[in-house]
């Protein structure tokens, strides 16, 4: 019998630190897309250091940066969006970029 090889996904997470932790724990290549960090936001800077130490690739940008979103999305195959309800219209920007990137296998 042949060996079944487990394929790890390249997962991009929008929001949701617990999802990032779970993705890394499962052995997936994990990426996050976050808004640019302000120098005085010490809690966010500390969180970014922790995430980066876990081996997560961090992309900083706005959801209005369509070309950047497409570029990032072309590096992954799965997208998980956990943005809060007030940002539901912003998710349409992610979906439009995913359509253009045209390589996403799964979205949650």
Automatic annotation (TrEMBL):
SUPFAM superfamilies: NAD(P)-binding Rossmann-fold domains. Residues 9-105 form the NmrA-like domain. Transmembrane segments: none annotated. Pfam families: NmrA. This is NmrA-like domain-containing protein.
């Amino acid at each position: 019998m042949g060996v079944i090889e487990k394929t790890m996904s390249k997962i991009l997470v929008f929001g949701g630190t617990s999802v990032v932790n779970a993705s890394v724990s499962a052995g997936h290549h994990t990426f996050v897309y976050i808004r640019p960090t302000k120098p005085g936001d010490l809690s966010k800077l500390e969180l970014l250091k922790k995430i980066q130490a876990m081996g997560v690739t961090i992309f900083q940008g706005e959801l209005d940066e369509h070309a950047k979103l497409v570029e990032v999305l072309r590096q992954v195959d799965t997208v998980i969006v956990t943005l809060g309800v007030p940002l539901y219209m912003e998710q349409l920007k992610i979906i439009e970029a995913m359509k253009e990137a045209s390589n996403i296998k799964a979205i949650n």
